[in-house]
Design goal:
about 120 residues, alpha/beta, Rossmann fold, five-stranded parallel β-sheet, 5 helices, Bact_response_regulator, CheY-like_superfamily, Twitching motility two-component system response regulator PilH, phosphoprotein, Sig_transdc_resp-reg_receiver
């Protein structure tokens, strides 16, 4: 069973993702900000990370960059899931090392398809 780290400062979003993922057979772990997310990614080595962008302190772009550039975590696919919907945000997210970029609110079917796609590569 794949373990997915949810990094999001919104308890509502975290709960929603957790519910969708567990219903679809994934194990979840969570962090409520970017700094904790980076620490948890290094400690837990999840199979995939769902990353919010707008968070206090270390934002999702910074956390993604730290995770995708660190030797111990660079193999973990990061999918940004954000309300930021500009082309520049998508481009910047990919430049930080994100494998994909989804816009909230994301449909369950789309979320699971994208996760499966990156777990199987």
């Amino acid at each position: 069973m794949a373990r997915i780290l949810i990094i999001d400062d919104s308890p509502t979003e975290t709960f929603r993702f957790k519910e969708i993922l567990e219903k679809n057979g994934f194990e979840t772990i969570e962090a409520s900000n970017g700094a904790d997310g980076v620490t948890m990614a290094k400690a837990e080595l999840p199979d995939l990370i769902l990353m919010d962008v707008v968070m206090p302190g270390v934002n999702g772009f910074q956390a993604t960059r730290q995770i995708t550039r660190a030797s111990e975590t660079q193999h973990i696919p990061v999918i940004i899931v954000s309300t930021k919907d500009q082309a520049t945000d998508r481009l910047w997210g990919k430049r930080q090392g994100a494998k994909d970029y989804l816009v909230k609110p994301v449909e369950e079917k789309q979320l699971i398809e994208v996760i499966q796609q990156h777990l199987n590569t």
